Amino acid sequence: MFNFVKKDFLSLSKSKSDLLELLFMPFILIAILGFSLGNIMMGGTSNNTFNVGIVNEQNLERDLGRLENELVEQGMPAEIVAEMAAGAQESDPAAMLYELLEDESFADIMIVEEFDNLSSATQAMNEDEIAGFITIPENFSYHVWQSIYQEEDTSSALNITVNEAENMASIIIESVVTTFVAQYNLETSIALATNGQAEAENQTIQQGEKVQLSVEEPVSAFQYYTIGMGVMFALSTAPIIATRAFKEKEQHVFGRIMLSGTKPLTYLSSKMISGTLITFVQLAILFALSTLIFGTFKGRDSDFWINVVYTTGLYSILVGSLTSILTSISLYANDNRTVGFFGSFVSVFAFLGGSYIPVEQFSEYLKQIGNWTPNGATMTSYLQLLQGFDFQEVLPLMMRVIGMTVISLLMAVIIFPKRRLD
User: Fold this and answer.
1) How many angstroms separate the CA atoms of 213 and 384, rounded?
2) Tens digits of per-residue pLDDT, 30-64?
3) Are residues 359 and 262 in the same domain?
4) Residues 90 and 158 reside in one and the same domain
5) What SS3 string covers 3-45?
């Protein structure tokens, strides 16, 4: 078997067209895409600051006075009423929303503008002066105070109006407001449940476990395209070796190998091993050159490289199994068109797997489909490793790769002809 594998390596090394496809072309594409599309695709350009409006329709002084009068009518002592009124003013949700939106952490994202009424805010949005606006309706804070201090079943809601053309800005505005409402309700519930005892500690309360999903810098353009081009062109190894196997059959090399006493499955295994080793070497060279010239994976620790070796090894075995099944089909059918079809279909896998562009920008559904392709599942695993994930965390994706490998090998063994072919 060693001699068969050695023969495949030597044969490939003497083919300039195959070396061009497996090594030179992906490297050139990495350079082109990394330099030309990097800022566009990977978010290298800074986000433009957008304007957001606020329309406050409530009268704070009137609502505070109304609350105080109702508390007095309920027979509460003047000292308690004054204390509750002071607490209500401090916990005014409208004022807290203003404070959040004007926080320095949002300074590079949004600029807050106040409007006197809905018509002026709507006109500003229609003229693209603001991306949207938040309306604080009349009696908003008063209804919140009623539910807190008088335990009345009242509801109050903030209204959000956004410009549909400003998709990203709309998402940010809605996210900020939704998070604010959820946090305000949570802290208020805790304060009521503990009679205010937890109020001083609410800044340090942790809800559940804090999980850091990414401990690294965002994935760069060169990192993205090194992986994308690598996994895409690695798939080309399978049809290249399978085509050579079919030529060996046409030239009666396969027949002579069978006459020498070699078992058919030994020949098939040699193609699987050749596909695996060639793919591993191909990806190793590509990653090494990209790191050396573009600094793609420079500075990564040993754990990262160990995880990359695991992932590359599993993907290489999958490509080896695809090599074996393509070999089996072509020899069994005495036709190389299936191999050619798979070779032409690699570009479809590349698109679905995200080699050209992150497909989640088009549809999350496409991303889910892509993660069930051989290259897509592997590419997502590589990207997660780059973002600081451990191999155990990407194992569910790699289990898909393992499953595809097992199925491909079983089918290859079943289909492969067990007797000498004419």
Assistant:
1) 9
2) 888 877 765 545 444 444 678 899 998 888 788 78
3) yes
4) yes
5) HHHHHHHHHHHCCHHHHHHHHHHHHHHHHHHHHHCHHHHCCCC
Question: What's the CA gap between 85 and 72, in Å, rounded?
Answer: 11
**For the ranges 288-292, 310-314, 349-353, 411-415, which has the lowest average pLDDT?**
349-353
Q: Tens of pLDDT along 170-222?
A: 777 887 888 777 777 777 776 666 655 544 344 433 433 333 334 445 678 88
Residues 297 and 397 in one domain: yes
> How many whole angstroms separate alpha carbon 100 and alpha carbon 177?
10
Q: Which two tokens stand for residue 337?
A: 């068109």
Token readout for 183 is 């946090």
- Taking the CB of residue 295, how many other CB atoms lie within 10 A of it? 12
Cα–Cα distances in angstroms (integers) from residue 341 to residues 21, 76, 346, in the given order: 17, 84, 9
How far apart are alpha carbons 96 and 175 in whole angstroms?
16
And the tokens for 268? 């098939």
Q: How many residues does the chain have?
A: 422
With the CA atoms of 198, 202, 204 and 206 taken in that order, what torsion angle do they form, in degrees rounded to the nearest 10? 100
**396, part of any domain:** yes
Please name the amino acid found at residue 48: N
Same domain, 155 and 281: no
Q: Which amino acid is at 400?
A: R
Residue 402 Cα distances to 19, 366, 392, angstroms: 27, 22, 14
Q: Which domain holds residue 88?
A: 50-201
Residues 360 and 265 in one domain: yes
Say what angle helices 374-386 and 302-333 make with each other, to 10 degrees.
170
